[in-house]
């Protein structure tokens, strides 16, 4: 039996132990990646049950997640194709130019979107709006059943199917499970898939500010010895701040009152947008790199942060997760057309081959950038300043960087080709 629903945001699992939901795919974790995956699979007629641990209303609360994400051009195409973009486009702020500067050096890189075409580099979108869109959209799709709040208590993976027992009673049967349950991924742990990685000793302080003057859709990334300080344009005279700081200093900064915090922030922000005022709460995200040793197992695949967690220096973590989503959707669409079981080893192996290299490259790139820029060692500073100047003067190299930021490089899944 496949259950459908009308209002995803208010649906809770039935408590009768005998309740059985069945679908093609079980998605564990209904966050930005899991929720988009359910919509993308539905686009190809593949049904899913999404099990999300948190209450949807809690996920939408202003205090839940202060982050805004840089959504690349190709991620936007995916969101458009699966019916999510229409719910967020009024809230999404285009990023037309990106300016990169290095500490005390006057050298900076300037990327202008019109050097590579008409489209913006991407859009800044507050995560809460994308979450809200996901709940709206999933509620419209007969192929999707959202169970929230709910947790998988036991996942049995046999040669022919997966069978999940939910903590509050009820079961879900599907051809395979996809773990989209974030960095700590209990599903990945339970499957015994190890992760390789390290902590950066840095924490990202995230907040939103209002400023006197307009940002003109320009994003700024200022490299300071403690890590990158990013000013990212939101709708109106507002910007999202990602302030990377040495871990040890963060408790003291977070404990400051609003006036003290704004003063510290202002010292890094500068005065180019006039006076700034903090709006809303602040958050602290400890930073680490992690990479799962493998992203498929018997009737199991990992997607998004459960498979790879990276430094936010290039704003690519979610974009990479959305690439996983679009690749999975293609792989399953082809399997469906060929009459194959979605959990077959060769179907999953195609997903692994497709995404493994791309994700590894992005992890290495973000890690390298952070190591190169988050220090104040004189020769390294000189080398990177020369590098910035060189990129600025070599148009072909500059265009390559810009196409990369837009997500245009690599083997693009169909939903990202536009
Ligand atoms: C400071 C900062 C800034 C960032 N900026 C950008 C950016 O500009 N652009 C970009 O592309 N990326 C950015 N990222 C990365 C991005 O936020 C993540 O890659 C993205 O949120 C990952 O989404 P996800 O759905 O895989 O995981 P999560 O967002 O962690 O979602 C996991 C979901 O699974 C649920 N869950 C967990 N356990 C269970 C369970 N046992 N059962 C059921 N459900 C469960 C959780 O409730 C949650 O809803 C940034 C990250 C940080 C820290």
Write structural notes for this entry.
By secondary structure, the protein is α/β, with parallel strands linked by helices. It has a domain at 8-95 and 124-196 and 290-376: 3-Layer(bba) Sandwich (FAD/NAD(P)-binding domain). It contains twelve helices and 21 strands. It has helices spanning 32-43, 56-60, 73-81, 85-88, 127-140, 186-190, 250-255, 258-269, 317-337, 345-373, 378-393, 395-405; strands at 20-22, 25-28, 48-51, 68-72, 93-95, 97-102, 108-112, 122-126, 144-147, 152-157, 162-166, 171-174, 176-179, 195-211, 218-224, 227-233, 238-246, 276-292, 296-297, 300-302, 308-309. Strands 7-6-15-16-17-14-18-21 form an eight-stranded mixed beta sheet. Strands 9-3-2-13-20-19 form a six-stranded mixed beta sheet. A four-stranded mixed beta sheet has the order 1-12-11-10, with no helix packed on it. A hairpin with a 4-residue loop joins strand 16 (227-233) and strand 17 (238-246). Helix 1 runs parallel beside helix 9 (317-337). The longest helix has 29 residues, at 345-373. The protein starts with 19 loop residues before the first strand and ends in a 13-residue tail after the last helix. Mean pLDDT is 90; it is low at 1-10. The structure holds flavin-adenine dinucleotide. Flavin-adenine dinucleotide binds next to helix 1, strand 4, strand 14 and helix 9. GO terms for molecular function: FAD binding; monooxygenase activity; oxidoreductase activity, acting on paired donors, with incorporation or reduction of molecular oxygen. Keywords: FAD, Flavoprotein, Monooxygenase, Oxidoreductase. One of its GO terms (biological process) is ubiquinone biosynthetic process. Belongs to the UbiH/COQ6 family. InterPro entries: FAD-bd, FAD/NAD-bd_sf, Ubi_Hdrlase_CS, UbiH/COQ6, UbiH/COQ6_monooxygenase.
